[in-house]
Write a structure and sequence with these properties.
Length: 184
Amino acid sequence: MTKQEALSLLKQYVKNENMIRHCIASGAVLYDLAQKLGCDKELWQAAGILHDIDVELVGDDIMKNHGTKAREILKDKLDEQAIAAIEAHNEHANIRARSTTFDHALAAGETITGLITATAYVYPDRKVSSVKPKSIIKRMKEKNFAASVNRNTIMECEKIGIPLQEFTEISLSAMQNAAEELGL
């Protein structure tokens, strides 16, 4: 599935522009992680883009059903390993623990986008191009900053063999490359 096909499908189900931008950012990060790890870049990018495809459908049942509804939507459209990683990114609804490289990469990659975005918003120009990796690492340690961002999930980068510093650099670079599309 191409990036444009994934975006088109996402926009059939997700109308919130901030959520769409988050999914685009996640796709960019996953693409670069796949490149680093020698995995299928287009597949990982599509998974990043589509990981929240069901978020508006599940409404108040987000903790219980987010990810499981995505499987129903994507079952004939996306590779099974991508669907499994999408299901696994919500540990509250998932019926299995994250165990594969794809699982951990998607969970950590989509989570760090929130921390990077929040960090960009505290800069005077509110641009991701101004953000430095050391600022993100600093913000990781500040539990009250972007408090809803799960730092333990971001640390799953180490389960795929990428130390936090390098993971932050890869993720930030991916988002900087997509800055225009993200409006950041």
